[in-house]
Amino acid sequence: MRRVGERGITLIEMMVAITVGLILIAGVVQLFVSNKKAYRVQEAANVLDENARYAANQLEYHLRMADHWGGVKASDVTVDGGVAALAADCKPASPTISATGVQGFDGAGANPPLACIPKADYAADTDVVALHFAGPLRIDSATVQKDATGLYVRAGVGRRAMIFDGEDIAKLPGDLYDPAKPDPDPIANYGYNAVVYFIRGCANQDLTLATPVCDAKSDTTPTLTRLVLSGNQLVQEDLVAGVEQMQVSYGVDTNGDRSVDRYENATEVTGANDWPNVVAVRLSLLVRNPELDPVFTDTATYQLLGGAGGTTVAVTPAAAVQHYHRKLFNFTVQIRNTTRG
């Protein structure tokens, strides 16, 4: 019997098969890469929304606490003469130890409007908001007196209040402190709070410096930041990376009915000495996606609240950062301690 011959594949057939296989694999890899990029951009968009919500939540809380003085009007709050000035205060524009509940500052150029904000940290042309208030919780006098660095507010409801050093509580006037009855109703102690919100030009400061600031070694991610009074100094707390712009306008009550009659920017309110009459604040936050999208270019012009006379401020992303997706968030907060009278 004759044997049947067996045949394999030729070299040309093998090369064709390999080529077709490589093309298919390349297509699958490209699809995977594209899907991964799309997922990362979408995930970053979700992070953007979450960051914006958190930023709004933090701002809203402190704005609603602003001008709380334990049942005392801001005009009846004084500062004890024994309170020492802070080494790095926000003076002269906005003293850190103050009974002005809300005070804003329009950004103009690269120089920060407050001395307590380092120039290297400040993001040019962004607004700044300073808030002062008594904390929500009562604190017993024995605890207050043991605090050698903390500031407090002692308030007699409907009469007057005083900002003082904790260890000096026994030196307060007799109508505010009686050693025989250190905690009588309706007199109470509250922690004193000062918070300054601004936009910093980086997310991570150069920690090799004695005083960390943004420099050439830092990233360039703008970040919502606040200065918080801790003891006898202001401490920076970075909150949300990616907040590029903050513009603020202020609702002023001109006839005493505790409702907004007009919105103005900070310069206008300061010029009319109307900070005690601010009953609402409108904020615009321009927040960008943390993920770079090289196939996307954002050349839109965003209209942010905060212009003169209640108008808007036009902001167009710089060419270097146009490959980021971004969103504009507007919200209004009532200064409830002012509107309650």
Number of strands: 14
**Number of helical stretches of at least 4 residues:** 4
Q: Helix proportion of residues, in percent?
A: 10-25%
Biggest sheet: strands, sense, closure? 8 strands, mixed
Count of the domains: 1
Shape: elongated
Roughly how many Å is the radius of gyration?
29 Å
Mean pLDDT over all positions: 91
Distance between the termini: 115 Å
By secondary-structure content and strand pairing, the structural class works out as alpha+beta
Which stretches of 5+ consecutive residues score pLDDT under 50? none
Percentage of residues in strands: 25-35%
**Which series of helices and strands comes N to C?**
HEEEHEEEEEEEHEEEEH
What would you note in describing this structure?
- With 341 residues, the protein is an alpha+beta fold.
- It has one domain.
- The chain has helices spanning 11-65, 141-145, 266-271, 336-339; strands at residues 77-79, 102-105, 128-139, 151-156, 160-165, 187-200, 223-230, 233-241, 243-252, 262-264, 278-288, 302-305, 312-315, 326-334.
- Strands 1, 2, 3, 4, 5, 6, 7 and 8 form an 8-stranded mixed sheet that branches. A 4-stranded antiparallel sheet has the order 10-9-11-14. Strands 12-13 form a two-stranded antiparallel sheet.
- The protein is elongated and about 110 Å long.
